[in-house]
Amino acid sequence: MIDILNVPTKETRTFGWVQDSSSIDNLCNVVALFDSESNFHKKLVDEIVPCIVLENDGQKEMLDALNAKPLALKYKLLTGTSFTPRSASRCNGIVQAAVKGQKRPFIVDWAADNFVRWAHAIDFIKYNYSDDTFSITKKGLAFTKSSGTERENLLINAILSYPPAFRILSLLSNPDKPLTKFELGEKLGFTGEEGFICYPIRSIVAALAETSDKDERSKIRSDWESSSDKYARTIAQCLRHLNLVKICKKNVTVEYGHELFSESLSAFCITPKGERVLRNINGNSKHSKIEKIVSYEMFATKGSDREYLRLRRSLILKAIVESKSKATFEHLQEALNANGLKESIETIKDDISGFINLGLNIEIYSDSVELTDSIADFSIPMYKDFTNKSELSKEKDEIRKQLKTLPHDYLSLMDLAVDSTQNRLFEIRAMDLFLNECGFYGRHLGGANKPDGVLYTDESNDENYGIIVDMKAYSGGYNLPIGQQDEMKRYISNNQKRDEKINPTKWWSEFPDYLKNHYFMFVSGSFKGDMAEKLHKIYLETKVSGTAMPIVTALLVADKIKSREMSLQDFEKGICNTEYRG
C-alpha cells in the first residue's frame, strides 16, 4: 500500500542514494547500533561514545538516546554536524562514533549521513516523518541477530531489494560485457535533471587518449566524476564486497568529434555467484521474485523543486501500482490532476523511463504501462507547498514537448547552465551536444589561455567554417562583462596570427587549414543586457562575427539538426552578432 501522509511541515532529507560508503562491515555496525540487545550497541554505549565524544559535544544526550526504549534516534544526533576547518573536526554524532575513520577514530558528518542512507535504503531502519527519527525494522532486527550464511543471504536480499543495486547487477548481467562506472551511471536514475547527470564516456576516453601526462591523466580519472557516476561506483563496490561483481579492465573505443579514440578503463563485470543470485531474485521455480524497496525521497535529489518532482513521481507510481490492469497514460495524467499537478504525457513518459533506470520492472506499451514488480509499502508525505513547480521545471517540460529526436538526458544542460559550481561538466556536456548530436567536428579544450572548445565543419561542405566557443554556467543571466569580451578578442587574435610566441598552447591547431570562415560563440543559460551591442563591438575590432547561444536554443537547434530539419550551413546563417536566431 502506498499511503498519502499529510504533514504540516517537513524536513528536507535526501534518502535513497549513497556515495562513498560501500564498506559492508561498517554498514552492519550502523544497523546494530539501533538494536539495544546487540553486542555493538553495548560497546558503543560502554566504550566508544564515552571515549571519543566530549561532554560539550553531546555525550550525555547521545547516551540517553541510545539507552531509551523504544529506541528512536534523531537524524541530527545520528549524523552530527560539520566543523570548519575539517581538520578541526570532533565527534558529535552517534554514527560518526560508530564508524572508524582512516586517520581518526570517527568519521565526519557527511560520511555518517551516507551510512544512514544505506541502512534506510535497504529497509534495515525506517524513517519517522512525525519526529525526524530513525528506528530499526523487523528486517534489521533479523539481520543483527543472524550469523554465517543466513546473515550473508539476508544482506544480499536486502541490498538487491534496493532498486538501484538491482539495476546495476542487471546491467552487468552479461559476463562478457563489463561496464565502466560512466556507462552504468548514464543508465541509472532519472536522467535529464541535475541530480542524475553523468560525464559522457566519449569525453572521458578522448581526454585520456589525448594526453600522456601522468598527473593530468590522474586528475581526469579522479576529478571527472558526476553524481550518477559516484552512485554507480558506490553500488558496484558494495556488490563487489558481496562477491556478486568483480573489477576488470575494459578497452573502450569511442567516436568523438568524428575521430576514434581508445583507452583502457576500470570496469565491473558479474561473477558466477552474481549470475546465480540475479536469476533467483528475478523469480524461478524455487524462488519468488524479490520485493523492491522504494522511498519518496529517492525520486529526486537536487534542485529547488525536488519535493515537487518526488511528489509527482510518487503519485505516478501509486497510480500504476493501484491499477487493476495496465495503466494508460491518460489515467496517470488524471491521477496527477486529481492531486493538483498538471503534467503532459511526455513528462509522464520520461518519469516512467526514470523508474526503469531506477531498477523497477515496468513494461511500456503504445498507450499504457504495466508494473511487473512487487513494491513494498511506503508513504508519500503531502505538504501544501510541494505542488509548486519551479520556473526551470516548467520551461524544461515545455522544451521536452518540442524535442523530436534529441535524447531527453540533454535536458540536464538546463540545470548545469545556471550552476556555476558545475562549469566544467556544463562545458563537457554542451560540447558533447554539438559534436555528437549536431555533427560538428572539434574538441573540448578548457584550461589556461584556451577557449572552452572549438567546432568546425567537414571539408566536403561548400561553405565550411570554424567556431571559437566560450561557455559560462551562470545563474540569473550572463551579461558578458568587458573582461570576457577582451578574452574572446584575444582568442580571435590568437587564431588569426597563430604565433606560438604569443600563446604557446597553440590551441588553434585544432582548426584544420581548409576552413574558409571563423566565428565565435558564447553559450550560457540565458543572457542579459544589450548583447547585440557587445557582440558587435567584438566584431568591429576583429572583423569576426559571433553569437550568444542560450542553452534552450542550443537544445532546439540540435534537435532540428538531428532530425535533418536544419543543416550546418543553416546553422551558420544564424550567427549574426546577436543572440542566436535559428
Structure write-up:
By secondary structure, this protein is of the alpha/beta class. It has 4 domains: 9-144, Foki Restriction Endonuclease, Chain A, domain 1 (FokI Restriction Endonuclease, Chain A, domain 1, Alpha-Beta Complex), CATH 3.90.241.10; 158-290, FokI Restriction Endonuclease, Chain A, domain 1 (Alpha-Beta Complex); 305-389, Orthogonal Bundle (Arc Repressor Mutant, subunit A); 399-573, 3-Layer(aba) Sandwich (Restriction Endonuclease). It is built from 24 helices and 17 strands. It has a 5-stranded mixed sheet, sandwiched between helices. Strands 2-4-3 form a 3-stranded antiparallel sheet. Strands 8-10-9 form a 3-stranded antiparallel sheet. Helix 21 (482-497) links the parallel strand 15 (465-472) and strand 16. Helix 1 (24-32) crosses helix 6, helix 2 (39-52) packs antiparallel against helix 3 and helix 9 crosses helix 13 (227-241). The longest helix has 17 residues, at 306-322. The protein is globular.
CATH class of the largest domain: Alpha Beta
Distance between the termini: 50 Å
Structural class: alpha/beta
Round the mean pLDDT to the nearest integer and report it: 92
Write the layout of secondary structure elements.
Blueprint (H helix, E strand, L loop, with lengths): L1 E5 L17 H9 L6 H14 L6 H9 L5 E2 H5 L14 H5 L10 H13 L3 E4 L4 E4 L1 H7 L3 H13 L2 H9 L9 H5 L15 H9 L4 H10 L3 H15 L3 E12 L2 E12 L1 H10 L9 E2 L13 H17 L4 E2 H9 L7 H14 L3 E3 L3 E4 L2 E2 L2 E5 L8 H12 L9 H5 L6 H14 L4 E4 L8 E4 L8 E8 L9 H16 L19 E8 L6 H12 L3 E5 H12 L5 H6 L9
Parallel strand pairs: 1-12, 7-11, 15-16, 16-17
Antiparallel strand pairs: 2-4, 3-4, 5-6, 8-10, 9-10, 13-14, 14-15
Helix pairs in contact: 1-6, 2-3, 7-8, 9-13, 15-16, 21-22
